[in-house]
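SAMPLE LOG
Freezer: B-3
Tube label: C17
Construct: single chain, 177 aa
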Amino acid sequence: MKLETCIFSGYKIHPGHGKRAVRADGKVNIFLSAKCVRSHKLKRNPRDIPWTVLYRRKHKKLVAVNFLSHININILKGIHGEENTQKRRAHKKVTGATRAVGNTTLESILAKRNQKPEFRKAQRDAAVKAAKDATKAVKEAKKVANKAAAKEKKPAAPKTKAPKAVKTAAPRVGGKR
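STRUCTURE (predicted):
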């Protein structure tokens, strides 16, 4: 007996159940129910619908077998199509530096790793202070240069404005009307 899987819900489909739909490109879609067909046609995302297997996988809603020991385990294996799931892989442990990286030698990497946090903080503070002093010195040098440039410039004579011609009323021509 061949069991199919619904492409929308992820549930198992037993022989004699479900509905097949063939797309224009030839791909066969197998649905468990009209509810799945309707949702697929409405272009709903199965990851956002709580009763689908994809939603349960996304939100880590796997059935805990040890809590449900009174229920037949064969029933649990088939529930939500979760029997094929794997345990999450453990992360590989990151090993320490074993070789030089770029221009940095292994000795300098190991020396930096073995430094105390207080020493690093003191180094960082010293570097910040040095950078601030350097920018301060640059600003002071600019100020002095600006003052010297201002002294060298002679104040220009104030420009005199040309007097404006005042318009007088046009003379009236002719007599009374």
